[in-house]
Amino acid sequence: MSRRFVASFLLLLLITFGSGGWRNSLAQSGGGKYFEETRHWVRGEFLIKYSSAPDPLRLFGYPITPAFLDKTTNQVIQYFQKARFELHPEAPPGEQVQLSQLGNFLYEPGLPLSSFDNSPTCRNFGTEYNVCMAFVEFYIQNGGEAQFGKPISGLELQNKRMVQYFENARFEWRSDYPPGMRVALGDLGSEHFYKVGYDRALLLAEPTEFTAEKSTAAKGVLGLKVRAYPLQAVTSLNGTQSIYIVVQDQSLLPVEGVQITLDVRTPDGKQSLYIVRQRTNAAGMTQSSFPFALDSVGIVQVNVTATYKDLQAKTTTSFRAWW
Asked: Residue 190: what pLDDT?
């Protein structure tokens, strides 16, 4: 289990099931925004990324799926009409949500239109391809390489339309659009979603938060589900390990204020008990770190107990000390 998987899965739970302290801030930039047009939420870090664009509808389009865990890459992703967001928790703050290189994934050569390359409006951005005319203006004004990546094609004719591919996007010249809007982005998010063959149930409408709150209030916390994940699946014989814990109720909604204890058992039979100082937060999450020192390789077992009022749940995780 990789570091990326652990962090990605935890954020998935936070995005997909989180309510708690977020309930009052939904539809605000830090909590969530519901798009009636496609009936999907954008939440948390994904919403911050979306809202940071000068014209998010033009650059990303509407969300077409919820955030979900891609089992192939072990990343939390979310599809929009024109883009796909990826969570990279190992990246520095402010860079943890990145755009998938859908242009690279979907590019198929069209009919080259090389006659435009000599235009004085052309600029080069470090590849063999120039960006010219209205495309270069749009590229520069809307984030350049950070937003679209580098150009991976020249101007081409595809489906009777002039286009140019970039690592993250496809520019299209739309003469039927109003002046100032004739450079548009292709719907690479939608195209990639269908091409990869994800479950189309992800396209179905999500419930509004009102529905979720009403259900939670009616049921209360009747049972606990606890999951735990080590930060490092394989370690050296000596070091520090971190364990991430997620606690949910019977409806898979986060439970805040849960007390966690860890019972750590090493291959030589030693046992250590840790009481996690921080109870679970509004997303049902907490973490704890502890040192370890082994004389030989083996499996370190971590037994996790979650206690909330008169409820209790247990789970077990482990990691291998290898070198």
From this structure: 95
Beta-sheet strand order (sheet of 311-321): 234-235, 311-321, 298-308, 259-265, 271-275
CATH of the domain at 273: 2.60.40.1930
Say how many residues make up the chain: 323
Q: Please, which residues have CB within 8 angstroms of residue 108's CB and are 6 or more apart in sequence? A: none
Q: Is residue 212 part of a domain?
A: no
Q: Which domain holds residue 124?
A: 3-203
Q: What is the pLDDT of residue 104?
A: 96
Query: What would the pLDDT profile of 119-159 be if each residue is shown by its tens digit?
Result: 788 999 989 999 999 999 999 999 999 999 999 999 999 98
For position 254, what pLDDT does the model report?
84
For the chain, percent of residues with pLDDT exceeding 90:
58
Tokens 């990303």 — which residue? 60
Round to whole Å and give the CA distance between 322 and 226.
Answer: 27
Q: Which two tokens stand for residue 272?
A: 């250590």
Would you say residue 194 lies in a domain? yes
Domain identity same for 135 and 57: yes
Angular region, 319: left φ>0, alpha ψ -120 to 50, beta rest: beta
Q: How many whole angstroms separate alpha carbon 202 and alpha carbon 280?
A: 29
